[in-house]
Specification:
Number of helices: 2
Distance between the termini: 8 Å
Structural class: mainly alpha
Radius of gyration: 15 Å
Shape: elongated
Strand content: 5-15%
Strand order of the largest sheet: 1-2
Number of domains: 1
């Protein structure tokens, strides 16, 4: 994995870009779960959302690593 990404002359850490992608995917997942009514079965929504974000971030990192190599 490369350490930095050049966006219009500004070097941004690759992890920051991956975190942004994971956040957008997480936002879509949270919206779907809220519309379905899944959060009625969740004890602590904030902790659950954090767990989903960590899982999505790990998935995004693994996928990006496999695409680069």
């Amino acid at each position: 994995m490369i350490g930095e990404i050049d966006i219009f002359g500004v070097f941004v850490p690759a992890v920051l870009v991956l975190m942004l992608i994971a956040y957008l995917v997480n936002l879509a997942i949270r919206t779907v779960l809220a519309r379905v009514g899944f959060y009625r079965f969740v004890w602590h929504r904030s902790i659950f959302d954090l767990g989903i974000y960590v899982l999505v971030l790990g998935l995004v990192v693994v996928v990006s690593h496999r695409l680069i190599t």
